[in-house]
Design brief:
Shape: rod-shaped
Number of helices: 3
Oligomer: single chain
Largest sheet: none
Number of strands: 0
Order of helices and strands: HHH
Radius of gyration: 41 Å
């Protein structure tokens, strides 16, 4: 019976070693699965972030396109000017003329002091486009326009009376 015990102990040791090896392999496989799942979650997170960024970029492009189309339609409707004509005549690479207003029959040029330049006098040179300066000019023009207020085109020019109701 001792020989049986020895044989059984050998088989038990062999089974224990096989079980330990299998358990170590299972632990390694489980660790590989955990790492794969973590990598998959990270990849999914990165994909979601990229997709969100791409969606935001696409929305920004669509909004920009809509603004351009709106401005193009506005320029065409209000001014009768196409986008190509605007780009050809008014873009940052071209110098900016120094006008007070173009609403008058002849543009009024001004000196640096804001005084009008005589029509037969030397005309000021156009200045390079500087966005900050042009935004400041726009704010000033809007402020001056608001001070002027609304103009009634039906009111007689200079008479203070409605058109067609002049003095007899």
């Amino acid at each position: 019976m001792d020989w049986l015990r020895i044989v059984l102990d050998g088989y038990r040791q062999e089974a224990d070693a096989t079980r330990a090896t299998a358990e170590a392999e299972r632990n390694q496989a489980e660790q590989a699965v955990r790492e794969s799942r973590a990598a998959t979650r990270q990849a999914e997170s990165d994909l979601a972030e990229i997709s969100s960024g791409a969606h935001k970029e696409e929305m920004a492009r669509i909004e920009q396109r809509m603004r351009i189309e709106s401005l193009t339609a506005r320029a065409q409707n209000e001014l009768g000017v196409t986008a190509d004509e605007l780009l050809a005549e008014y873009h940052p690479a071209l110098p900016v003329p120094v006008f007070v207003t173009e609403a008058l029959p002849v543009p009024v040029f001004v000196t640096e002091d804001g005084l009008p330049v005589p029509a037969d006098g030397p005309q000021p040179e156009p200045v390079p486009y500087v966005r900050g300066e042009q935004e400041q000019r726009l704010k000033e023009a809007e402020r001056n326009l608001s001070v002027l207020g609304r103009v009634n085109p039906l009111f007689g020019a200079g008479t203070g009376e409605p058109a067609g109701h002049g003095r007899v």
